[in-house]
Amino acid sequence: NPDVETHFTLDGMPKRVLVTLERYLPPGASIESVKVCNNALDAEPTWEDATTAVTAGRGYLFTNQTKTADNWGINIWVVIAKGSATERVRLDGYGGAFD
User: Are 39 and 47 in contact (CB under 8 A)?
Assistant: First the structure.
């Protein structure tokens, strides 16, 4: 959710992020999108589509290099589509790293 406050406040610009999702996606469900931003404290953060990198288990290299807030901040926004799944879809948590 883009309205959730950032959890990671930084004093230097993060260049990449690795996001791992603890999830259960039954047949018919899918990860619709994973968006990330490195300027989450800005009034208008720059959201970048990291879906391909996250679903492949790879790090994502940020393209944004600007901010208007005092500090850099990372935020993550995950959208899961239930699709035709008849079982419950779960996102139990997330992990990862950034530098």
Answer: no
